[in-house]
Amino acid sequence: MRKTSLKHAEHAWPQTLAASATAAQAQKLSTGDQQFMQDAGTAGATEIAASKLALKSSSDKQVKEFAQRMIADHTRLARNLDVIAKRHGITAPPSADSSVIGSLQNLKGAEFDKAYIQEVAVGGHQKAVELFRKESEQGNDVALKAAATKALPVIGHHLSMAQQLARTKASS
Fold first, then answer.
1. What pLDDT sits at residue 10?
2. Domain tally for the chain?
């Protein structure tokens, strides 16, 4: 009986060490970096979910093309952030902002397009540019700061594309 207990303890010890190491890594992130990870994850997940909705709910070719690009680019960005998150013991996948997705879910056609462009394409990217700029300038974690700096031009380009799309749709 005693051998079984000792054997159990030997197997549990590496797991306990791994859990402690994971907790220590997660603690290395400053509060600001942790908040960035959470906010960036939510922003990306919201962009992807809303853009998938756009593929179903929009009848506009330009909106659908924009949405397809957002899904591809934000999926790549999310993968990059996931790698850093896992290094710090953050394994829970980010979830989309349910209030934004909920506000879009029952809309169709031009009504959907207007809300998607305003709330997600323009509004979401304005917030994301500010979020990533702040992390690139003030972040403490070297990898996160580098990822934010690398992503900033892409997100800035998305904002420009969204603003152009908004102007195009407003004039038509």
1. 44
2. 1
